[in-house]
């Protein structure tokens, strides 16, 4: 991994990429059958039934975080659709695409203010939380970590 040299933005992008690559390392050896296996048939959250649905959720969420920031800057964008993929390789490419998309966001808006104290200038997301750009990116990083942990736990349960 190459470290970026652009201060706080670089740190956020480095950690975002690190989290994504750690997730990719976990899913890389998985077969389509392992991805598709229902892990939690009783969950009310459709995005958390299988590794495949979790990964679909992680990719879409990553793109939606960027869209939220772009919308805050005045762009008129629709939210990303869910695209269920069949292989770990396809998910790996999609996850790396999320990183490239985040890099492009900061390239498009090099003056993007990370911290915002005025609540009226923050981003109100679909689930009701209010974030500034830095908080949104920090949430994006931890979101990947939480779901990587979820997948790791499911895979450990397969060994028992």
Tell me about this structure.
With 160 residues, the protein is mainly alpha-helical. It has a single domain (7-159), classed as Up-down Bundle (Four Helix Bundle (Hemerythrin (Met), subunit A)), CATH 1.20.120. Helix content is 60%, strand content 2%. Strands 1-2 form a two-stranded antiparallel ribbon. Helix 1 runs antiparallel to helix 4 and helix 3 (51-72) runs parallel beside helix 4 (88-108). The radius of gyration is 16 Å and the shape is globular. It starts with 6 loop residues before the first helix and ends with a helix. The mean pLDDT is 95.
SSE blueprint:
Blueprint: H1 7-27, H2 32-36, H3 51-72, H4 88-108, E1 123-124, E2 130-131, H5 133-159
Antiparallel strand pairs: 1-2
Helix pairs in contact: 1-4, 1-5, 3-4, 3-5
Q: Which descriptors would you attach to this protein?
A:
60% helix; single chain; two-stranded antiparallel sheet; 2 strands; mainly alpha; Four Helix Bundle (Hemerythrin (Met), subunit A); DinB family protein; 5 helices; 160 residues
Shape: globular
Topology as a string of helices (H) and strands (E): HHHHEEH
How confident is the prediction overall: mean pLDDT? 95
**Low-pLDDT residue intervals, each spanning 5 or more residues:** none
Q: Please write the CATH class name.
A: Mainly Alpha
Family: Belongs to the DinB family.
Keywords: Metal-binding
Pfam family, one: DinB
GO molecular function, one term: metal ion binding
Structure summarized in a few sentences:
The chain is mainly alpha-helical and 160 residues long. The chain contains 5 helices and 2 strands. The chain has a two-stranded antiparallel ribbon with strand order 1-2.
């Amino acid at each position: 991994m190459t470290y970026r040299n652009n201060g706080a933005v670089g740190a956020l992008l480095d950690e975002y990429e690190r989290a994504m690559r750690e997730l990719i390392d976990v899913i890389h050896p998985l077969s389509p059958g392992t991805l598709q296996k229902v892990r939690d048939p009783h969950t009310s959250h459709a995005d958390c039934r299988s590794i495949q649905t979790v990964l679909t959720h992680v990719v879409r969420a990553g793109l939606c975080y960027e869209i939220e920031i772009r919308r805050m800057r005045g762009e008129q964008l629709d939210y990303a659709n869910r695209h269920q993929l069949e292989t770990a390789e396809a998910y790996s490419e999609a996850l790396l695409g999320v990183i490239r998309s985040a890099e492009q966001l900061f390239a498009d808006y090099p003056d993007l203010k990370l911290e915002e104290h005025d609540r009226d200038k923050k981003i109100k997301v679909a689930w009701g939380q209010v974030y500034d750009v830095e908080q949104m990116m920090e949430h994006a990083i931890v979101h990947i970590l939480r779901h990587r942990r979820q997948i790791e736990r499911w895979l450990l349960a397969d060994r028992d």
